[in-house]
Amino acid sequence: MIKLLKANFSRLKKELSLWIVAGVTLALTVPKIVDSYKWLENVKLDDVLFEMVPLIGVLYAVFIALYIGKEYSDKAMRNKLIVGHKRENIYLANFITCFFGSLIILSMFLLGNFCVGVPLVGGWKGEISTLITYILIIVCFTAAIASVLTLLCMLCSKHAVSAVLAITIALLLMVIASVIYNALSEPEITRDVHMTLNGMELGDPMPNPLYVSGGQRTVYEFLMQFLPTGQGILMANTEITHPVLNIIFSIIITVTANLCGIIAFKKKDLK
Predict the structure, then answer these.
(1) Ramachandran class of 123: left when φ > 0, alpha when ψ lies in -120 to 50, beta otherwise
(2) How far is 250 from 190, CA to CA, in rounded Å?
(3) Are 137 and 246 spatial neighbours (Cβ–Cβ below 8 Å)?
(4) How far apart are CA 22 and CA 43, in angstroms?
(5) Whole-angstrom Cα distance, residue 231 to residue 240?
(6) Among 137, 105, 92, 104, which Cα is nearest to 255's?
(7) Strand-strand pairing, 189-190 and 193-196
(8) Contact 183, 177 (CB under 8 A)
(9) Which end of the chain is least crowded, N or C, by CB within 10 Å?
């Protein structure tokens, strides 16, 4: 395992896809902070620091798909087996490497926000413990996303297919979380707006047909707390209410995905 990690990290330092994605992350982060500073009044770093978190899973997907895809296309995966490395060790070494690479991308995200945000809008105004908690949640759901993407890419030996699959899954998870969040945001009571001679007037309060209630709301609330992308949306809107639960869920996803991935990879026919 140690030899595999040394080889992987040695390659990671030269991995072009990682540094391109990290650079893109930094390039996307800076304009967002500048726009918030230009167009929003009394904006605080607390309000904008995590706004782009929901998108970060897609950036992880690009890197992980390209990194693991190269393992297959360069025959590195097969060579590791030939020299006697166990499949579970190869799998875990790749997950750890992908997780570490994802943390580098995350670091670029945070670096851009802090380096540009602090001079423009000032430092973090809330409790430092809240900032530390948020960063810990991001690190944990980064591990969860990396574990799911590693599972997908390790089981698909075709470079192009794994890249499309990983990015599609990352986007799909983000869309699902967005749809659920929007549904939960619907008010229970709504009012129609009527145009009159006196201008716009609100009608009588009435039940909102789009309001989610009962068991469906319970399921939706669970999914928002469970899904890494759901946690990202809650964080972007500073609505994290169960940080310990979020961390536990991310750990469960990480462990489960890796166990399933190892079992499936041990049975995979590597041609």
Answers:
(1) beta
(2) 36
(3) yes
(4) 26
(5) 7
(6) 92
(7) unpaired
(8) no
(9) C
What's the CA gap between 181 and 233, in Å, rounded?
8
Please list the pLDDT of the chain residue by residue as tens digits (271 residues).
888 999 889 988 889 999 999 999 988 888 877 777 666 677 778 888 888 899 999 999 999 999 998 888 878 888 888 888 899 999 999 999 999 999 999 999 998 888 888 887 778 888 899 999 999 999 999 999 999 999 999 998 888 888 899 999 999 999 999 999 999 998 887 766 656 656 566 666 778 888 888 899 999 999 999 999 999 999 998 899 999 999 999 999 999 999 999 999 988 777 6
- What letter represents residue 35's amino acid? D
Chain length of the chain = 271
On whether the pTM is more than 0.85, the answer is yes
| C-alpha to C-alpha distance for 134 and 140, rounded to whole angstroms | 10
Q: What is the CA radius of gyration of the chain?
A: 22
**Three-state SS letters, the chain:** CHHHHHHHHHHHCCCHHHHHHHHHHHHHHHHHHHHHHHHCCCCCHHHHCCCCHHHHHHHHHHHHHHHHHHHHHCCHHHHHHHCCCCHHHHHHHHHHHHHHHHHHHHHHHHHHHHHHHHHHHCCCCCCHHHHHHHHHHHHHHHHHHHHHHHHHHHCCCCHHHHHHHHHHHHHHHHHHHHHHHHHHCCCCEECCEEEECCEEEECCCEECCCCCCHHHHHHHHHHHHHCHHHHHHHHHCCCCCCHHHHHHHHHHHHHHHHHHHHHHHHHCCCC
